[in-house]
Amino acid sequence: MERRLGNMVPPEDMRACAHEGLLEAVRTFDPTRASLPTYVARKVRWAILDGVKRERRSRRALSRATALLCAERLSLELASAPDDAGFSEDDHVSALDRLLEAHAAALALGLVSGAGTPEEHTSRAEMAHALRHAIGALPERERTLVERHYFQGEDFDEIAADLGISKSWASRLHAQAIQSLATAIAARTR
């Protein structure tokens, strides 16, 4: 995690957040939903990234943490989607292309929402414009989720409660929104 965050967060701060993640994992582990090592690793990573966001460190660290959380959430939701056994090789290649586009959009969304210095802002301006245009075209619930989570810093739990949906449904909406953003951005750059 230290390397993924660009060595911008002191290791002792990450350990403190990781400890909180471990305690949360112990309290909430359900063996019917995931294996213990996978669950603990996910909880610890998310606790560190949430800790970085909560502490509002440098804008670079914040944007990296936001981007990594977005990609993690997307991966988790996409991993639960069933694989069609009847897929041809071309179908698998197409699905992989869509997956890579979605991850690129997820990372870009996180990075753009945390852009800070004028240089960073300028280098990300084109991507930000494309993302904002694509976000504006999302269905209302998806747009609300993306805007409130990435640009207003609200937790999925809060947003889901306000929208009157479960956290798992919010995760599905998030994955759909990221897929839609990826498609829109890919079409715009071609």
Description:
One of its GO terms (molecular function) is DNA binding. This is Sigma-70 family RNA polymerase sigma factor. It comes from Polyangium jinanense. It holds the Pfam family Sigma70_r4. Residues 134-181 form the RNA polymerase sigma-70 region domain. The chain is mainly alpha-helical and 190 residues long. The chain has a domain at 87-189: Orthogonal Bundle (Arc Repressor Mutant, subunit A), CATH 1.10.10. Helix content is 77%, strand content 0%. It is built from 8 helices and no strands. The longest helix has 25 residues, at 89-113. It starts with 10 loop residues before the first helix and ends with a helix.
Order of helices and strands: HHHHHHHH
The poorly predicted ranges are none
The helical percent reads: over 70%
Shape: globular
Highest-level CATH class of the domain at 87-189: Mainly Alpha
pLDDT averaged over residues: 76
For the sheet with most strands, the description reads: none
**Over the alpha carbons, how many angstroms does the gyration radius reach?**
17 Å
Report the portion of residues in β strands. Answer: under 5%
Q: Count of helices? A: 8
Q: What would you call the structural class?
A: mainly alpha
Tally of strands: 0
Query: Which architecture of the domain at 87-189 would the CATH scheme give at its second level?
Result: Orthogonal Bundle
Q: CA-to-CA gap between the ends?
A: 34 Å
Query: Might you state the CATH topology name of the domain at 87-189?
Result: Arc Repressor Mutant, subunit A
CATH homologous superfamily descriptor of the domain at 87-189? Winged helix-like DNA-binding domain superfamily/Winged helix DNA-binding domain
Domain RNA polymerase sigma-70 region: 134-181
Organism: Polyangium jinanense
Pfam families: Sigma70_r4 (PF04545)
Protein name: Sigma-70 family RNA polymerase sigma factor
